Structure formats: C-alpha cells, structure tokens
C-alpha cells in the first residue's frame, strides 16, 4: 500500500502542477482552459526537436519552455482579441478549439514510434522505504506547491498582482483605469503554458509517448482544481496529489478497470458537500 | 392551450417542410449517401438533446453524448447480446433507461452551476467512457451484432425510420419549448430566484430538462448502434463529448434547425474529407478555427443568427413598442389622508417581530408592518436599511429568521419559495424577465395555472402593452418593468411586493406608473407593498408608509405626516441638514 | 484592442457570417452530389483494360500507429504497376482513416464497396473493422486481407489476417517463456480489451492443461496502459513477478521498462508483436540490454508476428529495397500492408478461380481457390480458402534486444520462427 501511495505521486505531481495552472487561469482570466495539458504537451514535444541536435538535456528543456511560452502568447492573443467581453462559458468553449487543434498537431508529431524525451535528471531515483521514486517526481510535487505559494503571495503583495486581480474582477473597468488588459491576458496565458509545459517535462521521459493521453490529463487536473473550488490554489495542488494516489490505489484493487472514474467520483462527492448550501444560482 | 398550439405551428410547418425536402433528396440517392444522411440525423438528434439541457435550460452539461451510450448499450443488450427484443422495438427501451441515468446526472445540477457543473459532467463522461471500455456492462462490448429486421433492411427503409424519429423528436421539442415545461426551462436559465418567485419549482424544472434531454440522447444512441451494428465506446470518448458540445453551441442547437444544421455540417464535412482523402488533421484544424470564430461572435450560434436575421427582416418596425397610456377616463382612486386603515388585515400581509441576522450584522430588527387587504402601503428608507431583505424574507429566500410572516391568515414559515408564489408575488430591482419570451408567453409562464387569452389580454391592457410577438429583450426597460409587475398580477396573488418600480423612469413615466399602481387593489384584489426612493410617487400612490432605518422600523402611518417627521428626515438626510420645522 | 461594433456593423457581420456558412453548405452539397454521380456504385464492368480497385481502412488519427500500413501497400502497388499491373490490369488503390471510430469505419466500408466499387480491402489495420463491419462484409461477400486484432477477426469467412494475431502471439510467448526462459512467476498485464480477455482466459486454461509445468502465479488486468505505468509496475513488483508479459504498443513498452527501472522492479519484459518498432532499442539504450534491470532480467523480448526488417530472408530484403525506393518507413505496419498486398496479388496473378479479376466475384473466386502463398515475412504459408474462419499465420519470431538492436532470440525453429498449433476459435 505504501508503494502504491508513492507510486501515485508520479501522476499526482503532474495533476497538481496542472491544477494550479487551471485555477490561476480561471481566477485571472475567467476561462476554464480545457486545452492546458495539450498545449503544454506541444511545448514539451518541441524538446524532441531540440534534442535531435544533440543538445544538453537541460538546454533542451529550457528551449522547450520558451516554445511553451510562445504557444501561450498565440493562445492569449486570440483570447484577448476576440473573447475579452465574452462569458466564462463561451471562453472555455473556445479552448476546446485549442484542444482539438493541439491533438491534431500532436498526433502528427508523436505518431506511434518511440521517442526519448530529454531527461534532466537522468532517470535517477531516490529510494524511500524500499521503493524507488524518481527525483523528477519529487521536484514536480515540490514545484506545484512552491508555485501555489509564490502565486498567492505575488498576487497579494505586488503591483502586478493588484492589476491582475483588478482585471479578473472587472476587465472593462480595469481597462478604463489604465490596466493594460490585453497585454496582461497574453502574459498570463504565456505563463500558464510555461507552467503546463514544465509540468509535463518532468514526467514525459518515463511516460508513454502518445499524444491523446497527455491531452486527457486535463480531466483529473480540472477535477483537482474543482476540489479547490476553482479558488484555492493550495487545495488544488493537494487535490491533484490526492487524485493521483487514489488512482494508484484503485488500480491495485478489484476495480482497477474503472480507474478513470475516480476523479469524477471524488469531485462529485466533495462538491455536493461543499456546495450543499448553494440553493440559488445568484447570490441575491 | 390554443395559444400554445398557435405559437408552435409556424415552427412545426417549417420543420415538416425541411424534412420533406431532405427525404426527397436522400431517399432516391445511393445507399452510401443514405448511410451518411442517417448518421447525420442521429448526430442531429444528440444535438437536440444538448439543445434542451443547455440551449433552453442553460445548464452546462457536457456529457449528453454519454447518455446516448446508455441507449446504445440497452439496445445492444436487448437486440444483440440476448436477442430478447429485436431492433427497432428495443430503441424506446434504450431511451427510457437513459432517463434515470440522466436524472442522476441532473442531481449535482441542483447545487452546481456554470463551469463547476461542466467539470462534474465531464468527469461523468470520462467515467461512462471507462465503464464502456471495460466492457462489463451488458451490451457494451462489441462481440455481437445488432441486425435490423427484414422489413427495415430494404432500400432506404432504415433511413426513413431514423428520419421519422428525428422528425418526431424535433416536433416534440418544438411543442415542449412552448409548453409550460419549456417556458420554465428558459426561466431558470435566466434567473432561478425570479423563476421560483413566479411559482416555478426549480428542482422539478431541472429534472424535466435532464429527463427529456436524456430520453432524446438515449433514443439517438439506440439508433446509432442499430445503424452501425455494434456498440463502440470510442464514439463516446471525452474529446467527442467536448467537441460535440462546442459544435452544438456553435450551431445553436437549442433551436431545432440548429440541431439539424449540426448533423448536416458533421455529415457533409466528414463526407468531404473522406471524398478528398484529406488528412483528418485538416478537419480538426478547421473545427478549431471555426469554433473560435463562431463563439467569438455572439449568442445563439448559427441558428440564433438566422433567427435574428429573419426577425429583423420581418419585424423591423415592431421592436419599438409604444405603451398605451393609462385610460384617462377611468377615475383615479383618490388617496385619502386620513387615519391609518382598520387593523383587520384580512387577506393581506403581516410581518410580526421579524428579525434577520447575517452573522454579527442585524439586517432587520423586530420589524412589524401590516399591509391590509386591498391596501397600498409604501416602504421607504435609505440604502442598506433592509428593505430588500424584508422582501426576500417574504418571498422565502432567507433561510432563517425569527418572527412571523403571514399572508391571508396563513403563516409562510417553512413554505418553499415556489409555493409562496401562490399567495405572494414580488418584482426585482434588476431586470429578471425572460428575454427569449414574448409578453404573452411570459405572462403565461407566471400564471402557473392555466390562464385564458382573455385574462392575459387584461393584464396586457392594464400594463398598456400591446399583444406583440416581439421578444422581451427587444423591448425597452420601462415596458419590461411594467410586464414584471404584470407577471405578479397574473398569478392572482393576495399580496404584491413591488421593488423600486420607478428607478430610471422620467417624471411623466413615474406618474403614469403610479396611477396604474393605484388601480391594482380594485382591479385585481391584491394588497400592494411598494418599495421606493421616489417620494413623489410614494405620496401619489401610498396612503400609508413605513420607514426603515438600519433594520429598525422608525415610523409607520399616514404618508404626509410620516414624511414630514424630523426623525425620518434625519434618517435620510443626516442630522445636520434637517431644517427645523 | 477589441473594437466595439455599432449595431449596423454587427448586423452586417452577422448576415455576412450566415451567408458564408450557407454558401459553404450549398457548395458542399453540390460537390458531394457531383462526386457521387461520377463514381458508379457496384462493381466495375470487366474489360481488358479495366482497373482492379482496391481499398484499405485503417485507424490513423487519434494517436494510433497503424498509418504505415497504407505506405507499405502503396509501395507494393507501385512495384506491380511499374511492371505492367496484373495481366495488364493496373491496381487503383485508395485508403481511408476511420479515426478508431465504429461509425466512421462503417461509413468508409460502404463508401469503398458501394460508392467506389472496390473489389477487395487489403492491409486493413483498424480497431473497429472486425467487430463493426463483419456482418456487412459477410453479407456483401467482400474479401479482406489485413491485420487481425480481436477474436472476431479470426472467426469470419471473409476476413483473413496475415499476422499471427495476439492469440497465437500469446501462445508463442507462453511456449517460449516456459520452455526457454523458465521464470519463477509470470505477471500478465493486459490492456483493457474485454472481448479479448475472455478468450485469453480460455486459451490460457488450454495451455496450462497441455503444459503441466506451466504456472501463472499472477494475472493482473490493468486499465488502459496509456496512463502512467508506475502503479502497474509497482503492483507487479509487489506480486514478486520476474517476467512481465504485455500486449500493447511500442511507446508503452518503453514507458513500462523505464518505470520498472525507477521503482526497482527486476524482471524480464516480453511483449506481443504490436510492440515491435525499429526505434525501441535505440530509445531504451542500455536499459534494453539483458541484465539492465537486475539479475533476473533476461532482456526485452518481442514476439514479432512478422520477420523484422533486418532479417536476412530474400523476401524481406526485397521489401526493404523497394521501401527505400519509395521512401516508405519500414516497420511492422508497413510490413503488414506489403504482405497483404503480396498475397492477394499472387492469388490474382495465378487466378485459379478463372474469373474476371477486375470484378468482386472474380477476386473472391481467385482467393478461395488459391494455393498457399509462402513469404519469408510470415512463419507459415498464407491462404484465403473457403473455410468459415481464417488464421493461416501460425507463428511468431521471438526477438531480443542485444547490443543495441533486435536479434532473433535463441532456441526457435529452423526458419527462426516459433510455430504453434492453431488455437481453438473463440466461442
């Protein structure tokens, strides 16, 4: 059971990092990005190309993050240009378009052959209690929580954070007050894609290299984000880790065939409890 | 009832016309094209299902495609695996079995909305997909074949069956959308509170939306497995659910023509890709670009645009609706400035020692106000005094309070909001009318019980609004405000609570409004509590007025005396500015 | 920044968009109608210069690696047509992608057979093909020679797989494991394929009954292996297995081996032929060599259903040479396409049925009366014949990664293949 829990951290770390991304983008930009893991995967795929030139893995990873940032700029520009006034639902529906496009492109790149992604940690592991756990996983999980802390603090204490909060509450008003909403939108999208690329970078060297499973990572990630009520970044990160562990435990049990249903069951149970007082759709 | 039939007929005729053209084109075509059209119609049916739950009722349920899987498995089991019931007779069973599953999915919708509900339903889609892939559910593993009976295997026969199914389902949706169910779906999409105050049970409405939508999806799923021959979990993958949903939003599947456009678009685009053997990435990229484009441009998707175009062409001069001014010959009921009316409340409203606390803040402190039957009482006070809280408590939106609220001698305590609506109706400060409806339908919705054309006509006449097919969201604010008041009255309540009706109106419009309000007790037998800031209107309309300040009742009596009271003036203007009497 | 539109602008934008969509819809209808009238349905008329129309349905998009089957078949077709075709008839080849979806597979089948008049489908490598279209092909007597994956593929009168298939593949794996490798315990990690699992249970019971020394100590069914493999290898480690059997595709095999290294699982890995890909040894690097995971690790084995591309047999080398000419990637799937086409072309050339090979009746007759076709790619000779079910390829070649490349594993038959007897068909 202990090994199962440790084993679940590998997936849990990715879910946690992606969940932090999802919550921050929802809070700052009012969009639930269904494409986040797919966009990150595209950025991560670019590392393959850099690596083919024989580059040092750390350099490949860095350049991959740059590509991730560029992808985010493109996505952010589209959102800022066309969806500034739109509702949350419409914006989120638009990200499905990004998802479909990413999967189409990604399937071309990862077309069934095997690939070796650059591994900055060289596959090294740390043995805890007889079970090896990859260093990459430990870094990933720590990263998710460091991000959570850093973003929370940054939003409260910096001027940029204040601007972002203003933009998320009332974009048009903030615009009138001189907040450069379009630029900030692009910035947040870009940062979000860097984070999701990073989330995948640590896990890709040892995971399967076919694109659709990477794109579907968004489902447990949004489930984890929902555990944080789409507001609490810490809960989202913790939720991601918990979902990863739960999946690992269920896989070892009789119900292993239904592991994919785990995020849903957890989320429904928790949400129905937390929202049991939300009788009406509007506050007043 | 006849209004219902009249309204549906143009849509039904158009539907019939389009479907006749479709069958004329497809029936003689080669089998391959019939097959393409068949699959397209099935997808259109799933689009209808999304249209009911999201397009009409506004609930972001991303997993309707998964409910089609339930229909598929049922038919797969009944007709393929066990052979108990041959196709197509097993299809209704599939549809019926999808209903309880759909209702189960609907339960989270009672507390979750918007993207929260979207995430939960996406998780549900993933769960159903994994259950289907596991293949342990009867009827879900593709080891058997669902075959059609001989009488349906002939030329074009199965296409005709699917065609007839879609026709039936679309016609049902058209009729339902104009029936009470459909009106309540539109109402809760706009505002759950307002809907409940009009007597709509939000719980039942959401369940009917999920139930109808699940039935349609289940029927479509059953048809799909009979068409292909074996169940295929891949058809219902999460990416398919998402893409289908976005397509439904783009095409405006809330309308039947949007659903049909969805099926048509899918069939034609995949046929073209197949014909030219283009790499499927092209299709994906086109979808991506197209979806972003269409979504960025506005509500209702493609068919919403079409409808707006048609509306504009047809009714260019109708969107400015001129309100008839109040019939000047009818005498204004004079407001008397005498002593307060008899204490006998009768069928009126009584607040007794009402106290509402939000944590440490006391919003209302032991407030006692009586609104006798057929009287008009005003309620004034500075902002934050607790006026809206009082109205919310009366309507039932405050879960815990101490004290008593009675209407018609009956205590309202513990009564759910939509039950209170039989006795007490209210308006809202902000516009909570249902924009998609025309005035007649809106009043019909609010009436709860069956209401005659004559009764609706009377309300329209009282409000001064002509009977028009123009949608409410095309009408001006004042008309909508008056119609909101009218929607209270059509419910034949004992008491009507009108919240700031004159906000934003000019002096003339306020006076006109005031004179109409004066007619209410005589004409409709209701007591009226008017919350207002406009003192002219209060003086005109209310013989008695109550004043709240910081949750306390500081005055209650004849209007002129109360408004001249220095304590009342101090509450509004502040102590320093009170001019000594 | 985002421009605010005046009502007039908005109206114009809306009506422009509606008319654009309507125009596209109308144009597409027109094109569809025109193209449908230009390709006659039904079989083409037989004449001296008529073409032989052949189709192929594969699952390509959606991340399936089967796409090269098209390239392999096309390469063979190019070779045949360059030499003048079959008795003067050129081969016209088309392919379609069913995206792994049953509805699309069904639609494509009808398009190829009814709309385009294809007389046979060759090299089909698609997941939904067998379950979905079996009834249709049987009813319309359409012969298919391609990849078999599910039990239905080995139980149809008109579908003949050219590959050994996962069931023979498993028999080969079990045979080799218990005769050559002799591990203490075996973990069989299956992908979540419900139709196959029941059949595996049946076959395993038969194997155990006829091989008294065989013992499976743990059989674990795992959900779709495309999720993170760490929990699954952890389970295997806890069960104490020293040989892990997989039936998945190459990227997953690599992920499993890497995950095994990370959690410290010391075991031999063995996978079905679907794991074969020329890139695997290079991607695994040192991890692929015997002993990399520990003392119990006898290496990474694959039961290749067809001979690998570095096989010295002349048929294989001729194929590799032609692939170089047409720039075709050489892997399991392109081999399938090549071999399927080779078998059918061989049968049509001999034309033991005597009919017109540009018609579907003639093609069926030629295939049903053909002599067995021997090719170095396959373990045993291939034949279509008249049986109610087909499984002619009865062996696989166990491959082992050694010194950075695939080698033939020791202890196999004279042609390097391990051949087993035909399994009982699924019930």
Describe this structure in words.
The complex is a heterotrimer of chains A (284), B (581) and C (427). Chain A is an all-alpha fold and 284 residues long. Chain A is built from twelve helices and two strands; from the N terminus they run ααααββαααααααα. Chain A has helices at 2-29, 36-51, 57-82, 88-109, 135-157, 159-169, 171-176, 181-201, 211-215, 218-227, 233-251, 262-274, and strands spanning 125-128, 131-134. A two-stranded antiparallel sheet of chain A has the order 1-2. In chain A, a hairpin with a 2-residue loop joins strand 1 (125-128) and strand 2. In chain A, helix 1 (2-29) packs across helix 10 (218-227). The longest helix of chain A has 28 residues, at 2-29. The termini of chain A are far apart. The model of chain A has no long low-confidence stretch (mean pLDDT 85). Chain B is an alpha/beta fold and 581 residues long. Chain B has two domains: 35-271 and 278-312, ABC transporter involved in vitamin B12 uptake, BtuC; 349-423 and 493-577, Rossmann fold, CATH 3.40.50. Helix content of chain B is 57%, strand content 10%. Chain B has 23 helices and ten strands. Chain B has helices at 2-26, 31-56, 64-81, 90-106, 114-134, 150-153, 157-178, 180-190, 192-197, 202-228, 238-251, 256-275, 280-297, 301-314, 387-395, 417-420, 439-447, 453-463, 477-490, 507-524, 535-541, 559-564, 566-573; strands at residues 349-358, 361-371, 376-380, 402-407, 410-411, 424-426, 495-499, 527-531, 544-549, 552-558. With 427 residues, chain C is α/β, with parallel strands linked by helices. Chain C contains twelve helices and 13 strands. Chain C has helices at 7-38, 68-82, 102-115, 129-140, 165-181, 194-210, 230-239, 250-263, 280-284, 314-325, 332-350, 360-368, and strands spanning 52-58, 91-97, 120-122, 144-146, 159-161, 186-190, 218-221, 243-246, 268-272, 300-304, 395-402, 405-408, 418-419. In chain C, the strands form two sheets. In chain C, strands 6, 7, 8, 9, 10, 11, 12 and 13 form an eight-stranded mixed β-sheet that branches. Chain C has a five-stranded parallel β-sheet with strand order 2-1-3-4-5, with helices on both faces. Chain C is globular, with a radius of gyration of 24 Å. Chains in contact: A-B, A-C, B-C. The interface between A and B is large, with 53 and 50 residues.
């Amino acid at each position: 059971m202990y090994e199962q829990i440790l084993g679940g951290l590998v997936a849990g770390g990715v879910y946690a990092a992606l969940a932090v991304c999802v919550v921050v983008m929802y809070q700052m930009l009012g969009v639930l990005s269904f494409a986040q893991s797919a966009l990150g995967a595209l950025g991560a795929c670019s590392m393959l190309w850099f690596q083919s030139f024989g580059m040092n893995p750390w350099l490949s990873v860095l350049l991959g993050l740059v590509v991730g940032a560029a992808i985010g700029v493109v996505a952010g520009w589209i959102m800022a240009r066309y969806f500034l006034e739109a509702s949350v639902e419409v914006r989120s529906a638009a990200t499905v378009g990004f998802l479909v496009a990413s999967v189409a492109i990604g399937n071309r790149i990862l077309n069934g052959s095997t690939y070796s992604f650059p591994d900055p940690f060289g596959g090294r592991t740390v043995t805890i209690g007889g079970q090896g756990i990859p260093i990459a996983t430990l870094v990933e999980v720590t990263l998710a929580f460091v991000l959570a802390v850093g973003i929370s603090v940054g939003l409260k204490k910096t001027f940029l954070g204040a601007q972002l909060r203003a933009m998320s509450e009332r974009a048009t008003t903030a615009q009138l007050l001189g907040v450069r909403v379009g630029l900030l939108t692009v910035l947040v999208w870009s940062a979000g894609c860097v984070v999701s690329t990073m989330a995948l970078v640590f896990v890709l060297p040892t995971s399967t290299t076919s694109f659709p499973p990477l794109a579907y990572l968004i489902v447990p990630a949004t489930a984890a984000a929902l555990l944080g009520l789409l507001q609490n970044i810490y809960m989202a990160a913790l939720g991601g880790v918990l979902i990863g562990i739960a999946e690992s435990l269920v896989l070892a049990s009789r119900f292993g065939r239904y592991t994919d249903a785990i995020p849903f069951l957890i989320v429904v149970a928790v949400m129905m409890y937390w929202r049991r007082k939300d009788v009406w759709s509007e506050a007043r | 009832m006849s209004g219902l039939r009249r309204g549906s007929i143009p849509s039904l005729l158009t539907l019939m016309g389009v479907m006749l053209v479709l069958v004329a084109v497809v029936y003689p075509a080669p089998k391959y094209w019939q097959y393409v059209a068949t699959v397209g119609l099935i997808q259109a049916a799933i689009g209808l299902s999304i249209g009911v739950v999201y397009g009409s009722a506004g609930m972001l349920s991303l997993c309707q495609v998964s409910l089609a899987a339930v229909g598929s498995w049922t038919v797969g089991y009944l007709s393929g695996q066990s052979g108990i019931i041959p196709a197509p007779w097993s299809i209704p069973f599939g549809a019926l079995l999808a209903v309880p599953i759909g209702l189960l999915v609907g339960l989270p919708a009672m507390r979750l909305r918007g993207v929260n509900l979207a995430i939960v339903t996406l998780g549900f889609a993933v769960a159903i997909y994994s259950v289907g892939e596991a293949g342990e559910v009867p009827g879900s593993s593709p080891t058997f074949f669902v075959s059609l009976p001989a009488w349906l295997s002939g030329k074009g026969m199965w296409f005709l069956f699917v065609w007839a199914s879609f026709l039936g389902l679309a016609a049902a949706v058209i009729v339902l959308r104009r029936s009470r169910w459909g009106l309540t779906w539109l109402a809760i999409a706009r505002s759950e509170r307002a809907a409940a105050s009009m007597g709509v049970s939000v719980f039942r409405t959401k369940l009917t939306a999920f139930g109808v939508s699940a039935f349609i999806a289940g029927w479509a799923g059953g048809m799909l497995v009979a068409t292909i021959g074996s169940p295929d979990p891949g058809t219902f993958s999460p990416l398919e659910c998402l893409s289908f949903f976005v397509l439904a939003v783009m095409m405006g599947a809330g309308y039947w023509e949007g659903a049909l456009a969805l099926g048509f678009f899918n069939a034609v685009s995949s046929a073209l890709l197949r014909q030219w053997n283009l790499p499927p990435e092209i299709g994906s990229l086109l979808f991506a670009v197209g979806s972003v484009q269409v979504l960025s441009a506005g509500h209702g998707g493609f068919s919403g645009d079409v409808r707006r175009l048609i509306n504009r062409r047809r009714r260019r001069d109708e969107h400015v609706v001129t309100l008839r001014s109040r019939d000047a010959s009818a005498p204004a009921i004079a407001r008397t400035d005498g002593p307060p009316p008899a204490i006998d409340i009768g069928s009126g409203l009584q607040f007794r020692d009402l106290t509402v606390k939000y944590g440490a803040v006391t919003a209302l402190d032991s407030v006692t106000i009586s609104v006798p039957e057929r009287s008009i009482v005003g309620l004034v006070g500075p902002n934050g005094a607790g006026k809206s809280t009082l109205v919310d408590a009366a309507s039932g939106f405050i879960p815990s309070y101490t004290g008593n609220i009675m209407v018609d001698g009956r205590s309202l305590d513990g009564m759910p909001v939509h039950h209170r609506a039989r006795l007490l109706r209210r308006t809202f400060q902000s516009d909570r009318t249902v924009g998609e409806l025309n005035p007649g339908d809106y009043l019909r919705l609010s009436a709860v019980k069956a209401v005659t054309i004559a009764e609706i006509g009377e309300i329209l006449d009282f409000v001064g609004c002509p009977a028009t097919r123009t949608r409410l969201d095309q009408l001006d604010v004042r008309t909508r405000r008056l119609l909101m008041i009218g929607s209270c009255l059509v419910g034949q309540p004992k008491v009507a609570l009108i919240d700031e009706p004159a906000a934003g109106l000019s002096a003339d419009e306020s006076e006109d409004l005031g004179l109409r309000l004066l007619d209410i007790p005589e004409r409709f037998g209701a007591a009226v509590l008017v919350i207002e800031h406009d003192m002219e209107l209060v003086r005109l309309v209310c013989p008695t007025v109550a004043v709240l300040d910081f949750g306390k009742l500081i005055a209650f009596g004849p209007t002129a005396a109360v408004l001249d009271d220095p304590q009342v003036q101090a509450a509004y203007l502040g102590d320093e500015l009170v001019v000594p009497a | 920044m985002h421009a605010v539109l005046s009502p007039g602008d908005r109206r114009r934008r809306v009506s422009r968009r509606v008319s654009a969509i309507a125009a596209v819809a109308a144009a597409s209808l027109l094109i569809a109608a025109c193209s449908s009238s230009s390709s006659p349905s039904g079989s083409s008329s037989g004449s001296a210069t008529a073409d032989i129309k052949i189709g192929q349905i594969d699952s390509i998009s959606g991340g399936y690696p089967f796409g090269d089957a098209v390239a392999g078949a096309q390469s063979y077709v190019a070779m045949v047509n360059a030499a003048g075709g079959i008795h003067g008839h050129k081969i016209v080849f088309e392919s379609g992608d069913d995206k792994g979806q049953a509805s699309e597979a069904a639609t494509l089948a009808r398009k190829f057979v009814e709309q385009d008049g294809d007389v046979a489908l060759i090299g089909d490598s698609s997941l939904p093909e067998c379950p979905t279209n079996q009834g249709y092909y049987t009813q319309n007597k359409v012969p298919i020679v391609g990849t078999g994956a599910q039990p239905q593929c080995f139980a149809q009168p008109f579908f003949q797989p050219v590959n050994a298939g996962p069931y023979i593949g498993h028999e080969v794996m079990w045979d080799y494991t218990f005769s050559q490798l002799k591990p203490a315990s075996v973990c069989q990690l299956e992908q979540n394929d419900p139709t196959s699992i029941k059949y595996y249970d049946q076959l395993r019971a038969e194997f155990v009954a006829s091989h008294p020394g065989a013992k499976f100590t743990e059989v674990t069914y795992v959900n779709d292996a495309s999720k993170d493999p760490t929990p699954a290898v952890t389970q295997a480690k806890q069960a104490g297995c020293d040989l892990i059997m997989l039936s998945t595709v190459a990227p997953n095999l690599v992920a499993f081996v890497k995950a095994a290294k990370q959690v410290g699982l010391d075991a031999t890995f063995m996978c079905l032929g679907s794991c074969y890909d020329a890139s695997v040894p290079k991607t695994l690097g040192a991890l692929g060599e015997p002993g990399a995971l520990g003392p119990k690790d006898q290496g990474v084995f694959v039961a290749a259903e067809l001979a690998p591309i570095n096989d010295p047999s002349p048929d294989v080398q001729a194929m590799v040479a032609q692939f170089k000419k047409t720039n075709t990637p050489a892997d399991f799937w392109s081999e399938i396409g090549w071999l399927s086409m080779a078998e059918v072309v061989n049968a049509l050339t001999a034309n033991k049925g005597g009919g017109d090979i540009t018609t579907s009746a003639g093609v069926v007759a030629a295939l049903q009366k053909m002599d067995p076709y021997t090719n170095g790619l396959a373990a045993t000779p291939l034949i279509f014949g008249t049986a109610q079910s087909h499984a002619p390829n009865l062996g696989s070649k166990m491959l082992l990664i050694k010194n950075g490349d695939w080698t033939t594993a020791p202890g196999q038959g004279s042609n390097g293949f391990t051949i087993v007897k035909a399994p009982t068909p699924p019930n």
